[in-house]
Amino acid sequence: ASPEQTGFVIGMWGVGRLLFIFPAGILADRLGARRVMIPAWYLGLTGVTIIALAPDWRWAAPGFLVYGFSAAAIPVTNLYLTQSTQHDPTRSPALPLQASLTLLWAAYSMGLVVSPAIGGIIGEAVNLRAVFLLSVVWFVFSTLAIHRTSPYPQAERPERGYDYRALLTQWHILVTFGLLTLGFVATLIGQPLAPQYLEEVHGFSSGTVGAFGSVNALGTAVFSVLLGRLTAWRGFYACLGLVFVSFGLLLLTGAWPVVIVAYFLLGAYYTTRPLAAAVISTRVADHQRGMAYGLVDTLAGLATVIGTNLAGVLYAGDPDWPLITAMISVVVVAALGVVLLRQPAYHRPAAALAQVE
Fold first, then answer.
1. What is the mean pLDDT of residues 100-124?
2. Global pTM exceeds 0.70
3. What CATH number labels 96-147+162-356?
């Protein structure tokens, strides 16, 4: 396949992800998290199977689309974990919600530390199809494991219904979603072209940059565990601060020890996702959390589109500009947070849940 065809095929994953995550969150509110989570796993298994068996890129495209649909499992799994905090008798009441959400993300990131290297070895020794066939096998085990989860009671539906429209017109909700989205965009401006920056500006080989990617995933796992112990907003802004330092180090020097530290710190970007889910959880009622989690992930996907495109435009002007712009943007988002989150009108609606603030 040509680069254009490859880009189209992989882009289908993003299309499926953006189209399906938000509706899946709404379905989870109405049907229950587990009843949506299990079909999402089967979508992932189906998508990977189509990709593994595809004879050419035309058949792989629908596989990536279906696999994108399976991203619905992300907010729905977050909802399932949230319900476990209320109904699982084996769970420690001292463990905050954000710690549960970030621990799940840490487990996912630990897989990313080694899986790219394993995939590369298999791809070179056999072929790319073998990599996807092995993924199918692991997906089967994962799907069998998800069937062993227990259902939890759904939140009671209020007399007025789910009232999503009224929720999304409230000041504190708009402020929350706005700050989270701006935070995603700010960090994404400097992140997507960082590998290219290391190759073209600092002269690292593509293989070395790939190894830095494993360091990045390790950073995500570590910070997910550590920052999950903080309150949700503090953890989110701590992530932004760590990413700010990372970009500053990349601008400062290309010495490999510094770059390793920078890439480790950059892993904090991915920890913003579960912490954002924990933040919005304090703002909405139990019966609205599926929609809220779905919207968080949809906005994160939108931020990816905005941030990556803006990074490309800035990089064309000067390779340093995406990193500089990202650092300035983080400062702006932090300043907005200081102003808006101190408003009394922001805290009143969630006063009863202040322990996760």
1. 80
2. yes
3. 1.20.1250.20
